[in-house]
Design goal:
The protein is mainly alpha-helical. The chain has two domains: about 45 residues, no CATH class; about 35 residues, no CATH class. Helices cover about 60% and strands about 10% of the residues. A two-stranded antiparallel sheet has the order 1-2. Helix 2 packs antiparallel against helix 3.
Length: about 90
């Protein structure tokens, strides 16, 4: 989903129960433009993730240490770490 194409269905699925073959329901130019839109969305999400992690390195380091010791972490355990650094409002 993007602002430009919103939730348009630009692909059709035939034989959904026999392998689910897909085909584009748009021109090659539109498909190329969609590829560009997808790349922009991926780059934007990557930058947002990078910025979020950079802003909370202390949380990430403690969570990584926790995982090195125990190999797994529950959501509740992770949130305990987060709350040490980011108090609830």
């Amino acid at each position: 989903m993007s602002e430009k194409y919103d939730m348009m269905g630009l692909e059709t699925v035939s034989n959904a129960y026999l392998g689910g073959d897909t085909s584009l329901a748009c021109s090659a130019e539109t498909a190329a433009d969609i590829d560009k839109e997808v790349l922009l969305l991926i780059k934007s999400a990557h930058q947002k993730a990078h910025d979020l992690i950079a802003a909370h390195l202390d949380i990430m380091h403690e969570a990584a240490s926790y995982l090195m010791e125990r190999e797994t972490i529950t959501g509740e355990e992770f949130m305990r770490i987060v709350r040490k650094y980011v108090p609830e409002s």
